[in-house]
Amino acid sequence: MSVIDQKKILRKEMLLKRSKLLNPEKKKYDEWVCHSLWNSIKTHQSKKVHCYLPMGSEIDITPLIDKMLTHGITVVTPKTLPKRRLQHLVLASLNQLEKGVFGTSYPANATEYFGSYDLIIVPGLSFNKANYRLGYGGGYYDNFMEQHSNSKKIGICYPFQIVEKIPLETHDLQLDEILVNSEFLEL
Ligand SMILES: Nc1nc2c(c(=O)[nH]1)N(C=O)[C@@H](CNc1ccc(C(=O)N[C@@H](CCC(=O)O)C(=O)O)cc1)CN2
Ligand SMILES: Nc1ncnc2c1ncn2[C@@H]1O[C@H](COP(=O)(O)OP(=O)(O)OP(=O)(O)O)[C@@H](O)[C@H]1O
């Protein structure tokens, strides 16, 4: 089977598993992720953070986003464009979002950001222990992360999303760290 087909199968499996997560366990896990990331941001004194605006059953990092905004951290989020391109917009408030393509949202009337990042919080459907990642299949994040080789890139996920083998193509990039907590056994 081709790598592309193997990726498709793994995506489907992970989307299905993730869609079955229920509160309060999911909420508890997501809060743990937010706390851990916030600790890391404080420890490293991160001032410029890139993160996703959660959709569907993705880890809900909105409490973290609010906290970062309250503390004056520059929060930049992607707007999805055609052909593996993202535009990066400064987020002023979670109350001013517009709907984009593929179920994504993006900051309304925002300025584009061209600077560097101390931290990039990376969403994903699956990861392996060598810090490789599988996304939704748009090829967006590999292209973006390649342009920010010096930024710290942390992938976040539920324990079941860690797999032995991620089907890899040459453009797939390695992250610096995967944040996961396997003590939440039911997830
Ligand atoms: N919240 C969030 N924003 C993000 C990403 C992400 O993973 N999460 N991306 C990371 O790269 C980029 C968007 N990439 C995407 C690429 C393809 C599809 C896509 O094909 N979606 C399918 C349905 C998938 C599903 O069922 O959830 C579709 O709409 O047909 C979605 C997003 C940028 N913004
Ligand atoms: N840099 C690239 N050069 C050529 N083709 C690419 C590149 N990036 C992605 N592609 C093509 O797009 C397809 C999807 O890419 P990939 O599987 O890496 O996406 P993903 O990381 O799962 O998605 P996303 O980052 O949007 O969440 C690949 O199978 C490949 O054919």
UniProtKB/TrEMBL annotation:
Report any one BP term from Gene Ontology: tetrahydrofolate interconversion
* Superkingdom of origin organism: Bacteria
Q: Which Pfam family is an annotated match for this chain, by its short name?
A: 5-FTHF_cyc-lig
Q: What is the lineage of its organism?
A: Bacteria, Pseudomonadati, Bacteroidota, Flavobacteriia, Flavobacteriales
> Which family is this protein grouped under?
Belongs to the 5-formyltetrahydrofolate cyclo-ligase family.
- For this UniProt record, give its keywords in alphabetical order, as a comma-separated list: ATP-binding, Ligase, Magnesium, Metal-binding, Nucleotide-binding
The reactions it catalyses are: (6S)-5-formyl-5,6,7,8-tetrahydrofolate + ATP = (6R)-5,10-methenyltetrahydrofolate + ADP + phosphate
Cofactor(s) needed: Mg(2+)
| Annotated EC | 6.3.3.2
Residue sites binding ATP per the record: K7, K8, I9, L10, R11, R133, L134, G135, Y136, G137, G138, G139, Y140, Y141
Tell me which residues bind substrate. L53, E58
The GO molecular function terms of this record are: 5-formyltetrahydrofolate cyclo-ligase activity; ATP binding; metal ion binding
> What is the official name of this protein in its record?
5-formyltetrahydrofolate cyclo-ligase
